[in-house]
Amino acid sequence: MSSIILETRDLSKQYKSQWALKHVNLRLQQGRIYGLIGKNGAGKTTLMRMIAGLGFPTGGSIFLFGKENRGGLEEEGKRIGSLIEEPALVAGMTAKENLHLQCLMKGIPNYEVEKELLELVGLQDTGKKKVKNFSLGMRQRLGIAATLIGNPELLMLDEPINGLDPAGVIEMRELIKKLSAYENKTILISSHNLPELYQVATDFIIIHEGEIREVLSHEELDERCKSYLSLEAVDVNRLATVLEEKLHTQNFQVMPDNSVKLFDCLDERERVGRVLHENDVIVTKMVVCGTSLEEYFMSVIGVKGENRDA
User: Fold this and answer.
1) Is pLDDT at 176 greater than 70 in this prediction?
2) What end-to-end distance do the CA atoms of the chain give, in Å?
3) Higher confidence at residue 265 or residue 12?
4) How far from chain centre, in Å, is Cα 84?
5) Rg for the chain (alpha carbons), in Å?
6) Can you tell me the distance from the alpha carbon of 12 to that of 179, in angstroms, rounded to the nearest whole number?
7) Is there a contact between 38 and 192 (Cβ–Cβ < 8 Å)?
8) DSSP state, 2?
């Protein structure tokens, strides 16, 4: 079983009368990529700032690598690399100069490390080009290189694909995947772009109005969003019996409204209809359905169609 890198216990943060975080309980395991999903203002950035020691919680505790993190960043906090909001870069410097400056500021001047990090993020050939002339994607990658100084074990990336063009999104996606395998790092990524997070995350954390609504693995999300054949019949008990005895499947669910979700036979609708008819099941509805990532997210936070803003 993977070791626990980060744990929060009843972590809360209040700004005047507004609660930004409310009793957040999380456990992050080594080597996993966690997608932190939420609407704008849900508490994603606040949570990352508390973990990084950039703010003080109103209540609760943060444990990094098994030790409680009191009073902001302490010794264990040095094992974290974070890119929150925008990377702190000097526009008039090159990528190499920026990275060297960051190394000096962290007390780790090492030309070999700087070279390795620039190669890792694909910026080794930028030469004398100044950061002010970089694309947004290049600046984001350089910011990530700076977070890797000191070989942190936990990376936190706040909206790393925000504002990127399609090519930049692909570059960032591949970089994040590479970092996950790079010395078994744990990565926490915040975003409201569900389809993109789906392509990189191994686990998902859904946060809404400062509260963690659900934590689930990629496999669990797939299970809850998979397609199915929605069936309705005059006699639902007879329908269920025929599915088991004639179609030889138990891979279905009878829902509270007496509809049936059949997860088999999606490409055999005609056969399903014929078998049901031959066994005196009067079907009133048969349609292929499925839950999109966005729809599932909305169902978890309790928002219906017309108010979507994921």
Assistant:
1) yes
2) 33
3) 12
4) 15
5) 24
6) 30
7) yes
8) P
